[in-house]
Design brief:
Helix content is 36%, strand content 13%. α8 runs parallel beside α9 and α13 packs across α14.
Amino acid sequence: MLSHIQIETPISTASAFVGSIGKAHFSDLAKAKAPAPAQVKAATSPLFSTVEAEDVMKSAAIKTVEQYVEERGGDRPIKKVLIANNGMAATKAIISMRQWAYMELGDERAIQFVAMATPEDMKANAEFIRLADEYVEVPGGVNRNNYANVEVIARIAREQGVDGVWPGWGHASENPLLPKTLTEMGIKFIGPTAPVMSVLGDKIAANILAQTANVPSIPWSGSFGGPDDGPLQANLNEEGTIPPEIFEKATCRTVEEAIEAAERIGYENGIMIKASEGGGGKGIRFVDNEDDLRNSFVQVQSEVVGSPIFIMQLCKNAAIWKSRLLEISMVMQLP
């Protein structure tokens, strides 16, 4: 059954109607001899085609989430998850977690999923909406109205009584305010803690942290102002974040500060003006002289309003086999 709740505005109370979508019936199973529980799951599960039958038959007993968590020394079962994302991210998340639940617990529906859906998503008949157990309609338009809006996500999480929120990537996933807000509400943020997100989820902070760890860095506005006027050092505070005064030294708040940083870096290879909160081609400009910098800086400010801005040298003439964008994912078991 798929439930639907509609939110008229970002600050309204959730309300609306509940509908249902019928599910396919496997009438041929009724004619056959009743198989063992694990075999029933294998025959009826939509996920069966993606897993090996031999693996499925290993566990005939169906476990609850509570049992699974208790067996591993945990005390916080997550049975209902809000998917605070859309598109392929949301689709892959639901499918993967359902498959995990089927393989580990013997029940792909052991975890329930609540989706957030904009009018645009519903008009497109987005797959992640159909995969979810229920969905909440949120305002359309730019993502600050919906998937990047921490207030909207937190309110839906509370009203839907979820145990955890999966943020995916993009949108609000790198906003440290989201894990902080959810933690205060007693809801699990399925991702890094707020201090980690504060340091690694921001381009300026991440660059400062990288050069503190002696990672070779391209000259940028944070390459100066540190010890002996060298690279800035993170000097994390008690909360595990970079102190504001260090962060500000790497930030160009005005055109004049950007020009000063560009002069120290040099225009020879070109200069990139970047908004720390930009992405997807927004909030980034290339310049190679002061006049263009003046104009482009204002454009970046207007394109990503309120975002800190930094200046970085362009990595020029890098052959494709020498230069790579590396994204590293880590999976680890915590004690």
